[in-house]
From TrEMBL:
It is found in: Secreted. It holds the Pfam family Polysacc_deac_1. Keywords: Membrane, Signal, Transmembrane, Transmembrane helix. Residues 136-306 form the NodB homology domain. Gene3D superfamilies: Glycoside hydrolase/deacetylase. One of its GO terms (molecular function) is hydrolase activity, acting on carbon-nitrogen (but not peptide) bonds. It comes from Halobacillus faecis. GO terms for biological process: carbohydrate metabolic process. GO terms for cellular component: extracellular region. The keyword Transmembrane applies. This is NodB homology domain-containing protein. The chain crosses the membrane at residues 7-26.
């Protein structure tokens, strides 16, 4: 009986000690694996260097555009930096990747052909029929805010004097500027934003709603209007800009999302529906043209001719 009692005591003591160890290490592992988000109550402090985005140029127009292609990019990666993680199961580059040399050729083509690269304000004026823009006009956009946008795309855009809209998942922006490692899929840092804000117009791709629900739908169509509004408010705080535009994560949206965007003061929103934007276009359903890793210069030329 005494031996039996000792065994029970030993077992209980072991369970207590083991539980304490597990709790300690779970806390440690949870801390190590948790994702650090940019604080929802802090601003990127980029307002002063984004003032140029409010300007609207006066164009000398021989022939006005009937449609404007809105080109959509995500990641720009140098060929020598490609890793196995950049390829799908069939061995093809993911459709969100464009090689640096191809991007360089595309921007050079736009420059040599005399294309006008519009700002959001100018594009909005075109859609609203307030202004005319040159026949050869495009709007360049990037989704997600990957770090390669600064290290690879930005120097090319800057070289040709081009601007582009960069739709940020604002919670992903980092306060610390870590060394660029293309294989890690890093996001822009505050330093990147400030050094490239003369070329990029920074806009919202949500705060932390670039996710899918367990049932598969994007958060923007599966979460309540209150939750969507809360996420947008956090993104608004980070960006702290008056003229707001939005890109739908995964291109998924519904009437409720549009209602929240309108209520929250967003002037336009961009889809992934293929097409050329035309005057009178629905402000919250702007089509875009995705540029793919398989596109050669001929494909690119065809895509930008409305």
């Amino acid at each position: 009986m005494k031996k039996y009692g000792s065994n029970i005591l030993f077992t209980l003591s072991f369970i207590c000690i083991f539980s304490s160890v597990i709790i300690f290490y779970v806390d440690q592992f949870s801390g190590a694996s948790s994702t650090t988000h940019f604080p929802e109550d802090q601003s990127f402090d980029i307002q002063s260097c984004q003032k140029w985005t409010e300007d609207v140029r006066t164009f000398n127009i021989d022939r006005a555009a009937k449609g404007v292609p809105v080109l959509m990019y995500h990641r720009i990666i140098a060929e020598e930096d490609l890793e196995p993680i950049h390829y799908d199961e069939e061995g093809n580059l993911y459709t969100t990747i464009v090689l640096e040399k191809e991007f360089q050729s595309q921007m050079e083509f736009l420059y040599n052909e005399g294309f006008t690269i519009l700002t959001l304000r100018e594009f909005e004026g075109f859609v609203d029929k307030d202004i005319e823009v040159p026949e050869k006009s495009v709007l360049l956009t990037f989704d997600d805010g990957f770090k390669d946008n600064f290290h690879v795309a930005f120097p090319v855009l800057d070289k040709f004097g081009f601007t582009a809209v960069n739709f940020l998942i604002t919670s992903k922006i980092t306060s610390d500027d870590e060394p660029f490692k293309v294989e890690q899929g890093q996001y822009l840092s505050l330093r990147d934003l400030n050094e490239s804000c003369g070329v990029f117009e920074f806009q919202s791709h949500t705060y932390n709603f670039h996710q899918r629900a367990p049932e598969g739908g994007a958060f923007l169509v599966t979460r309540s209007k209150t939750e969507i509004e809360r996420d947008l408010n956090r993104s608004d705080t980070n960006l702290n800009i008056s003229h707001k535009a939005f890109a739908y994560p995964y291109g998924e949206y519904g009437t409720e999302a549009i209602e929240v965007l309108n209520k929250s003061g967003y002037s336009m929103a961009f889809t992934v529906v293929e097409g050329v934007a035309r005057p009178g276009e629905s402000r919250y359903e702007i089509p875009r043209i995705g540029i793919l890793p398989t596109d050669n210069l001929r494909d690119f030329r065809e895509k930008i001719n409305p």
